[in-house]
Amino acid sequence: MSSREPSCPFSQAMKKPLGELGSADPPISASSPPGQLPATQTSVTQPSVTQPSVTQLSAKQSASNSATAAPTAVSPVVAPPVTHGSLVELSRDLLGGLRGLHAQHGPIAAFQDGDQRVLFLFDPEYNRQVLSDAQTFHAHFFALRGPKRSSQRRVTCGLLAMNGEQHKRNRRMVKEPFGPRAIEGYRQTIAELAADEVATWHDGECVDFNERMIRYMLKVTSRILFGLDEPALAYELGEQIAHWVALNNDFGVHALAPLENFDAGYQELLSFAQELEANVLKLIHHRRDNPNPAANDVLSILVGSLDAQGGLSDEELVGQCCVLFAAAHMTTAHSFSWTAFLLAQHPSVMQTLWEAIHDGTADEPHPTGAPSLLERVIKESMRVLPASAYSQRIAAEPVRVGPFEVQRGEPLVFTPLITHRLASLCDDPQRFDPDRWVTLKPTAYQYHPFGAGPRRCIGGPLAMEVLRTSLPIFLRDWRLSVQPGARIDAEVKSTMLNPKRGVPMVFDRHPQTTGEGRFIATAIEGNVAELVDLIEVPATNLPRKPR
Ligand code: HEM
């Protein structure tokens, strides 16, 4: 196998080819070859800890394997336990791996594969330390970056791959099309696209709702990013970037495994990136040559933005466009799918929301100033099943995190998937309960579906707008129920929590009457029931057609 590079923190286990190391990348050590050490074992190794930290664990705490363990001030200092194993194996079932590491070690866990260690942070205080300090903890884009001076390197050169001054400047420039005024300008287009989407639904049909939402988000993202006024051109480019994203995602986990066809796939990715770069450049030149002050899609705004250095170069625009698309498309599609799934399986919440959509109050703020019902539903769905399952930082210099001395280049993983379900955040964390948001006011590091700190998701408000505008249009005249007996499995792939086999949903057009039985949960199978408490449903329970 020739040139490989990491695509996620677990692939740090592989050595990066020297020619492909980015100049800003800290050195990454190599370790055991993939495929070895399938079994994991926990041992207690002595890290170089010299003095107690407020976030150190007591032996009792770490041994209790409590799912709710949180850092507390304790002494004396004990060696934190480390799980030894294969990062390749861990990445094969990352969902199980993350949950297992947390259950085993509590607030912070170390996973050691040969000489490569990855730290897993599960507690808000560790999130605060790492996410608020962008100087010490650098972002490391999970996508394959490609050789230096390659198209793949340039199309992945967006915010997610930048650090330091370069990140600060690009973030300032890219922020503009995601501000409140710009987002307001996208609302009408989103509503029209949502109406177009429901116009394709048929009464009684069963579809993979996730697949539908991926296609829907392709349209929404393409239009908002590349052309509110030139939809055909925007979709064409969107389709191409979506294919490129899919090629990248294919490596998400497989880059760790010794796949026979890895090299062929990698070459395909590199040559597809060349085509993509050429097409994005064509659109950028077209926008530069035909400036339209009324155009308010993201690319037009970015092309026209100027700063003291004169604005973003074509090369910077290419990277930003591709990475923005990649960051927006699937994450929002999965958020739609999980929200629809949770609503379908919680009929009383769905009934309340449906009534509020019909009486026009769904998006009204709560009398106490708490979020609207619609927003509470979305926030709770993102708490229980966050589309972004984990992300990572790389230590740019030696630093102490809790009981660990972290070396330069060492990856640290943070994960809303675990932090959002700590008992210190809320009661019954596995319960889908949108009304908890009437009183729940978590810190930015306890609840972070969009990340936190200076690298918080720049498109978060846009994603919320897309969800808030589209959901009432989807749900007003349609009942969405999960196909009885469907298997709903969640898996972590390319940093996202996605429904592995999709979400088969039955669409029923329903008349505007109220009544019991309008919405009904169905009996389903799959590992999603390990992540969220679902109502027990008799296997024969089928949704009734309202009269
Ligand atoms: C529900 C949908 C979304 C979710 C769950 C999500 C999640 C996240 C998360 C967790 C991060 C932080 C990653 C880190 O700290 O390493 C992030 C960053 C980012 N997101 Fe999103 N995102 C969503 C939608 C969007 C949209 C719609 C866009 C743009 C159109 C976008 C663009 C970005 C960018 C550019 C960054 C990098 C920010 C930086 O490094 O300064 N995201 N997103």
From TrEMBL:
Keyword field contains Signal: no
Cofactor field: heme
Pfam families named among the record's database cross-references: p450
Location of region: Disordered: 1-78
Documented EC number(s): 1.14.15.32
Presence of the UniProt keyword Acyltransferase in the record: no
Keyword entries, A-Z: Heme, Iron, Metal-binding, Monooxygenase, Oxidoreductase
Single GO term (MF): monooxygenase activity
Binding of heme, residues: 457
Biased composition (Low complexity): 23-78
Family recorded in the similarity comment: Belongs to the cytochrome P450 family.
Name the record gives this protein: Pentalenene oxygenase
Organism per entry: Botrimarina hoheduenensis
